[in-house]
Amino acid sequence: MNKIIRKQQLTPETALFEVEAPRIAKRWKPGQFIIVRPNAGSERIPLTLVDGNKERGTITIVVQRIGKTSAVTVATPADGAFHDVVGPLGEPAHITSVGKVTLLAGGVGVAEVLPVAKAFKEAGNYTVVLAGARTDSLRILREELLAVADEVIWATDDGSFGFAGNVVQLLQDVVKASGEKPDLSHVIGPIPMMRAAAKATKDLGIKTYASVNPVMIDGTGMCGGCRVTVRGKVRFACVEGPEFDAHEVDFEELTRRTKAYKKQEVQAYEAHKCALGLQAH
């Protein structure tokens, strides 16, 4: 069992957890992830590491309620514990000193880009985070982003704060307005956003890495659930990724694979919500 040290509800559907995990806290690096089971019978869900504290022996993750298991995880109380946490898994992000780095993040990806942005800045780069949310009230970790990046520019889908549109449109707008493009870009978020970002940055001639999030089960490459085609070759995101050259990823195939169990996921979540309703009465 991994004891929860701190829980912060960031939005109604998103929560931050600081969790006791001393071995992971000693070894983790930006870009790596863990696999969590909130209880013994749960599905295993991969979550990107947001932070780690060696002295406290804790790690920090942010979870968004999407399906049954993520809903169970978000609902775990502040004085509770997760049944098991495995990690750190995957390869660290490619952190180099190149000059100016723009990091695109949407939704819960805003939390996941935090350690990567911090690492790029510590490597001597000028860092600009383009962060996206559906609306102003769903913007998360605003102060934390400002603490690790040289610039933070927000985009909201409904235009309620900052740029009206998504982060890909924001990047195109920023490049057009300044007449300058970054030396490197990093993108993390929903697959449609990463696919659009890959196309836009390829058109602009910006080297880009994407942290992909395929179906993951065991986190060791044994099950093959996380297969991703990169430059025509099958790669295993849980051991060779999750970060790949965004311009080489077959996002069409990745989209199909992540939707393969959508029907079952929806059915499980609806059954979970019905069960909660029965318990409430």
TrEMBL record:
The annotation note on the cofactor reads: Binds 1 FAD per subunit.
A Gene Ontology BP annotation from the UniProt entry: pyrimidine nucleotide biosynthetic process
Q: Which InterPro entries match?
A: Cyt_c3_hydrogenase_gsu, Dihydroorotate_DH_Fe-S-bd, FAD-bd_FR_type, FNR_nucleotide-bd, PyrK_electron_transfer, Riboflavin_synthase-like_b-brl
Q: Which domain of life is it from?
A: Bacteria
Cross-referenced Pfam families: DHODB_Fe-S_bind
Q: Which SUPFAM superfamilies match?
A: Ferredoxin reductase-like, C-terminal NADP-linked domain, Riboflavin synthase domain-like
Q: Which residues form a coiled coil?
A: none
Q: What is its EC number?
A: 1.8.1.-
Name of the protein in its database record: Sulfide dehydrogenase (Flavoprotein) subunit SudB
Q: What is the lineage of its organism?
A: Bacteria, Pseudomonadati, Acidobacteriota, Terriglobia, Terriglobales
